[in-house]
Design a protein that fits this description.
Layout (H helix, E strand, L loop, with lengths): L3 H6 L5 H45 L8 H49 L1 H18 L1
Organism: Candidula unifasciata
GO cellular component, one term: clathrin-coated vesicle
Keywords: Coiled coil
């Protein structure tokens, strides 16, 4: 019967280091995602402001001629679109706060895990050194 341990450790006993590497770089990946979301939030906020400006321009256009009712439709549409963009910005801001909290907790847990699993790291390194020495 094949077990997880047989498949995980493999011939070079790199399973522990793979898990550790992923855990270690999880903090960096989360930080990069937070930075991306912040930049996206800034872009969406600027877009919303520009839409508001465009809506004011459409509202200030003279309501004469056959396009008079059309300008009202455009103004209403742009105002709603601007409002939706601002809602998106607020939603992303809340998401960013949650991601920052998660990143801080992840960093604390990484430190705790590193301290708690130091014995496992030492044992894995000993196994790898022994395996290398035996093969030589």
């Amino acid at each position: 019967m094949t077990t997880f341990a047989d498949n995980f450790w493999g011939p070079k006993n790199n399973g522990y280091f793979t898990l550790y590497h992923n855990m270690k770089h999880g903090h960096t990946s989360t930080k990069e995602l937070i930075d991306f979301l912040r930049e996206s939030c800034t872009v969406a906020e600027n877009y919303s402001k520009l839409l508001t400006k465009l809506g004011k321009l459409a509202g200030n256009t003279p309501q004469v001629g056959t396009f008079g009712p059309f300008w009202n439709v455009i103004k209403t549409f742009i105002e709603k679109l601007s409002s939706l963009q601002m809602q998106l910005v607020h939603t992303w801001a809340d998401l960013i706060k949650d991601m920052v909290r998660y990143n801080e907790e992840q960093h604390k847990r990484h430190k705790t895990m590193k301290e708690n699993e130091q014995g496992t790291l030492d044992a894995v390194q000993t196994i790898q050194q022994t395996t290398t020495a035996v093969s030589k």
